[in-house]
From TrEMBL:
Subcellular location: Membrane
A cellular component term, taken from the record's GO annotations: mitochondrion
Chief location of this protein within or outside the cell: membrane
This protein's UniProt keywords: Membrane, Transmembrane, Transmembrane helix
UniProt name for this protein: Mpv17-like protein isoform X1
Organism the protein comes from: Carassius auratus (Goldfish)
C-alpha cells in the first residue's frame, strides 16, 4: 500500500496529497470525539464539517502554498529553510487557523461565525508556534516536494485533534489540552456536575 501511495503521489500529486490531508484532518476530529472527549455518540456532522474545511481549503491551500514557497525559495540551504519557516508561520499558519474556526462555525450555521475565532485564535496561534515550526522544518528538510502536503497531513492529524478539542472544550492553549489529557475522567466528572446544576 505504501508503494502504491508513493507511486500515485508522483502521478497524481494534487489529488493524493489533498485527499490524504483531508482524511487525516477529519481523523483528528474522530480521535478527539472518541478518545479525548469520550463521547457516547459520535457527532458525525462535526466530523463532516471538519472534513469539508480540510478538503476544500486546508489541503488545497497547503498543496499550492508549499509549491509556491519552494518555487520562490528553492533548496534546502539553512537560509532558504529559514525563509520558508518565517513565511509559513507568519502568513499560512494564521490564515489556516482562521479558516478552520470560521469555516466550521459557518458550516454549523452559527449566527456569529467569528465568535470562536475571537475567543481562541491568539492562544491557538501561540500554541501552533510550539508545534508547527518543528514539523515544517522536518518537512522542508526531509520530504520531497510531491510529499510535503501528505507529511503536513500526518502532522495535522495531531493538530486537528487539538483544534477540535480547543474549539469544543478548550481555550486554544496547550496547557488546557494537556490538563484534559492527563485527567480526562476528572474533566468529564466536572462537566457532568456543571450540567446537572
Amino acid at each position: 500500500m505504501r508503494k502504491s501511495f508513493f507511486k500515485r503521489a508522483k502521478v497524481l500529486p494534487w489529488i493524493s496529497n489533498v485527499t490524504l490531508y483531508g482524511c487525516l484532518f477529519a481523523g483528528g476530529d474522530f480521535v478527539h470525539q472518541c478518545v479525548i472527549a469520550q463521547r457516547d455518540q459520535m457527532d458525525w456532522r462535526h466530523t463532516r464539517n471538519v472534513a469539508i474545511v480540510a478538503l476544500s481549503f486546508q489541503g488545497n491551500f497547503n498543496y499550492f502554498w508549499l509549491r509556491a514557497l519552494e518555487h520562490r525559495f528553492p533548496g534546502r540551504s539553512p537560509g532558504m529553510i529559514f525563509r520558508k519557516l518565517i513565511l509559513d508561520q507568519t502568513f499560512a499558519s494564521p490564515l489556516a487557523t482562521s479558516v478552520f474556526y470560521t469555516g466550521v462555525s459557518f458550516l454549523e450555521g452559527k449566527e456569529d461565525i467569528f465568535a470562536d475565532w475571537r475567543e481562541k485564535f491568539f492562544n491557538t496561534y501561540k500554541t501552533g508556534l510550539m508545534y508547527w515550526p518543528f514539523m515544517q522544518f522536518l518537512n522542508f528538510v526531509l520530504m520531497p516536494l510531491y510529499l510535503r502536503t501528505a507529511f503536513m497531513g500526518c502532522s495535522a492529524f495531531l493538530w486537528a485533534t487539538f483544534l477540535c478539542f480547543s474549539r469544543q472544550s478548550g481555550d486554544g492553549t496547550a496547557a488546557m489540552a494537556l490538563a484534559w489529557i492527563m485527567a480526562p475522567k476528572k474533566q468529564l466528572l466536572a462537566r457532568s456536575t456543571d450540567e446537572g446544576k
